[in-house]
């Protein structure tokens, strides 16, 4: 068994994100290409966007700290610390409205392969 402090990892990723020119950093805490489930902790500096990308299966975003906007087409949803957002099918984009730490959980289905960049 493994145990992680997601808030500590998010804090570290956010610190790393502030040191990069693109304002984001990520670390996979569980899974990978050989697994169906992949969980990645991301740090996003306020104003940073994860460009529109396809949902590779079933996915959620847990806001560990901060505030984000999840957009898909003409719809958008805001998430704050403690909120869990279910990502819609199709494509979506995430924008950090404040410095934010996220847990992205993706269960890959036969609809595609997960691509998480950090």
From TrEMBL:
This is Cupin domain protein. Residues 42-91 form the Cupin type-2 domain. Pfam families: Cupin_2 (PF07883). It comes from Paeniglutamicibacter gangotriensis Lz1y. SUPFAM superfamilies: RmlC-like cupins (SSF51182).
